[in-house]
Amino acid sequence: MGKGDKKSRKGKITKGTYGNRRPRKANKSTGQSAPKEAAASK
Q1: Are 12 and 22 in contact (CB under 8 A)?
Q2: In b/e form, how buried is each residue of 6-42, taking b as 16+ CB within 10 angstroms?
Q3: pLDDT tens column, 3-27
Q4: pLDDT for position 16
Q5: Which member of 2, 12, 23, 27 has the lowest number of beta carbons within 10 Å of its beta carbon?
Q6: How far apart are CA 10 and CA 4, in angstroms?
Q7: How buried is 2 (Cβ within 10 angstroms: 0-12 exposed, 13-18 middle, 19+ buried)?
Q8: Is 5 exposed, middle or buried (0-12, 13-18, 19+ CB in 10 A)?
Q9: What is the spatial distance between Cα 14 and Cα 3, in angstroms, rounded to a whole number?
Q10: Could you say which DSSP state residue 5 is in?
Q11: CA distance 25 to 10
């Protein structure tokens, strides 16, 4: 459980890889959600 552990967040940062513990984008902010809400409210 540390820098050498591939399954931990620290290990993924050290290795430079991504996965469930370290997603590529922490905050998904897309402009697609606003038009869907506007269309649903009509």
Answers
A1: yes
A2: eeeeebbeeeeeeeeebeeeeeeeeeeeeeeeeeeee
A3: 888 889 999 999 999 989 889 986 6
A4: 92
A5: 27
A6: 8
A7: exposed
A8: middle
A9: 6
A10: -
A11: 16
In angstroms, the CA 21 to CA 8 distance is 7
Amino acid at the residue 28: K
Look up residue 3 and give its amino acid: K
pTM of the full structure: 0.49
Q: Is the pLDDT of residue 38 over 80?
A: no
Question: For residues 3 and 13, what is the distance between their CA atoms, to the nearest angstrom?
Answer: 8
Contacts of 24 by beta carbon, 8 Å cutoff, 6+ apart: 18
